[in-house]
Structures are given as structure tokens and as C-alpha cells.
Amino acid sequence: MIRPNLQGLLMALLLPVLATTGCNQSNSAPVSPKAESSPQSRQLKVVATFLPMYWFTKAVSGDLANVEVLVPPGTEVHEYQATPKDVQALAQADVLVKNGFGLEEFIENTVKNAQNTKLKEIEASNGIKPLQEISPVVKRAEKVDNDHNHKAGNPHVWLDPVLAIKQVENIRDGLMAADPANKGAYQANAIAYIQQLQEIDRQFKQSLQRYPNCTFVTFHDAYPYLAQRYQLKQVAVVEIPEDQLSPTDIQKTIAAVKQYKVKALFGEPGVDNKLLKSLSQDLNLTLRPLDSMEIGPLDPQHYFTAMKTNLQTLESACR
User: Fold this and answer.
1) Using CA atoms, how far apart are residues 230 and 214, in angstroms rounded to an integer?
2) What's the gap between Cα 200 and its chain centre?
3) 3-state secondary structure of 117
4) Where does residue 70 fall: left (phi above 0), alpha (psi -120 to 50 degrees), or beta otherwise?
5) Could you give phi then psi for residue 268, rounded to 5 degrees?
6) Which pTM does this prediction carry?
7) Higher confidence at residue 65 or residue 25?
8) pLDDT score for 137
9) How far apart are CA 240 and CA 219, in angstroms?
10) Contact 194, 168 (CB under 8 A)
11) Which of 5, 71, 96, 97 is the most buried (most CB within 10 A)?
12) CA distance 103 to 157
């Protein structure tokens, strides 16, 4: 019978094929996840207190850190009340970036409540000499309970590009200490942003040197560092309510403006104070907005957009 021979012949033909198939299956076996990719390090979690601190931190960190801002842009930092969400954010954060000089009055208790013993704090104003009041402050007729005083010095240092460089450097050093593996990237990002700050400083110096001792009155004590840096004269800060002016408020403002023979009145962008506009018309002065950088988009480049607008405003006022 030929059946056994046929069976043997078929087996002889199939064995090489089976052997080849077995080898191919062995070579194409899936690579283990461990061999395919090494586990990535956890992204640094950073919390910045308010907008300028967020800009500077995000500029230095780039995509290496998850950065969030506590005080919503446009919210008054001095009067901010922390929320349970803020406490939770700090409880989960690796790093906190704050301005300092007593600006963020809410932050101390918020950090305590977060109970995060591993939280690293960066004070961006560390090493900067604070300014006290550089001009008379014309007080309101009726003081309100939440009126804030700058006991540790004026905190608005970010409005001076040269001091902003120091703040960026402090943030850079703090991030490098918290995340040494990415030290080179933080350093490179900081260099790029500092070069832009140096350029905006150059533009301010070049433009404003034509108007030495330009005098102005402001309604927010946010600009002494800016004024000192570029030889402007902030001659008075007039504290007035945004909602209702008393006759005494008006008289004090008019007296201050006449006393110092100022060229400009500076309010803030986004504040539609009709009474203030009416007052400026009575004084025959243009009320111009000067941005204190507490409102705006989260893009770190907005600092330069706002500062260039401030420079144009100052030039127009001082001519």
C-alpha cells in the first residue's frame, strides 16, 4: 500500500516549513514595555501666586513643568481670599513661586493649611532692595477697612525690567534646585527671556531720556520702581474710591495736581471710572491707562506687549 509512504513524504515536506515558521514567530515576538521605552520622570508641579509670577515662571520652565496660577488675572492680589482649591493645589505642588514684600498676604495661611512638607518656596524678590513711599500719598476722605499698606516696601518690582531680570534669575535658580535633571533647559529658557527684558529696558532708556523729570500723578501706588529707573517723577498717589467720589476727594485731587503742576494722570486699563474721567477733564489733563500687569492673558510674551504699550503711554504723556 502507498498510504504510509505518502504520509511519510508529506511529513518530510512539512517539517522544513514548520521549522521556518517557528523561527519567524520567535524573532517577531513583541518587545517588553521596559525595553521599548524607559519610564519618564514626573513633570514638576509649580504654583505661581499671580500673573507676572506665572509669566516669569512659565518662561523659565517651558514645557518641563506644569505651572498654574492661584489668583485669577484681574483679581486684586492684596484682597484675595484663598479657596479650598488653592489649598489643594499647594498640597500637590512641588514648588511655589511668590513675589514677596508682603504682597500675597493670603499665602502664608494657605501654605500652612496645605500641610505639604516637601513644598519648595521661591521668593522672586529675594535680594531686591524694596522702595518705601517715594511720593506723598493723598489719602481718601474716608478710609476703608481693607485699605492695604506696603509695610515690607512697595511690592511692584516686576514693572522695572531690570528688577524683573533679578526675579527671573531667582525663579531659574529655584527651579534648577528643585529639578536638577533639567538644569540646562531652565538656564537656556531664562537666558532667552532675560535678553528680551534687557531689550525692553534699552527701549525705555532710549525713549524716556528725552523727557527728564516728567511729573505724573497716579491713583495706584504701583509705579515707583518704574519711575526711579527712568528718571520720572511720581509726585503723588491719590487714593480715591472707584465707585463714589466725595467732594473732599475731588478737592484733594485737584489740589495735588495743581500743587505739583503735573503733565499726566495715570489710571489703570480696564477700569471705567467715569468720575475719574470727569475729574481729568476739569483739570484739563488727559487720563491715560498705565498697566500694572495684574490682568492679561497667560502668554509670558504679554509682559513685553504691555510694557511697550506703557512706554508709548509715557512718551505721549511726557511730551
Assistant:
1) 10
2) 17
3) coil
4) alpha
5) -125, 145
6) 0.82
7) 65
8) 65
9) 7
10) yes
11) 97
12) 11
